[in-house]
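A further point concerns the way the authors explain their paired sequence and structure data. Each protein is reduced to its one-letter sequence and a matching series of backbone shape codes. An entry of this sort, consisting of the sequence and the corresponding backbone structure tokens, reads as follows:
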Amino acid sequence: MTRGKLLCEAARGLCKTSTQAKVPMTSTARTMAMAVGQQQRLDRNRNLLPPLRYEIVTPDKLDQAQELLYATYHPFEPLTKHLGLMNGPNSIPDLDRMVERTVHENLSLFALDMHGKVMGVCINGVSSREDWDHTVQDITANFQDPRARPLAAIRQEMHNKAVRIFDEVGTD
């Protein structure tokens, strides 16, 4: 019996006992019944999307990743949109260089349908304390497009404020 069916049966049993005895359902039973309902909704929606498989974005597929980012991410990303950075394919060279460096770390993924068509891309990279210990001016100086510098400044400012996470987690 699956976990969902087991929870469903347990909740039904609790509900029957509660209604037969005319005793109000306890908060634990109510919580369990709600969890069962939520799990059933998740199970019902699970098969609506096509099954996907995942593949590492390798440097030889960088163009495909960039193309997907320009088609589905850059036009809708709020800061990129606000700064007016997106002006068609390959119009944000500073971000293109960041993606290229990151792809070489082999942590980025393509989501593919069962026919091998790329459905999405997720650019992931390694982050270490050294990446977070720079001044905003140092980072923005590396951006050629002055319109992209506010994006870099915001990102670095957040890194500078959050660098303590490395001590809290006990990693470098």
In short: Strands lie at 53-56, 109-112, 118-122. The CA atoms of residues 113 and 141 lie 40 Å apart.
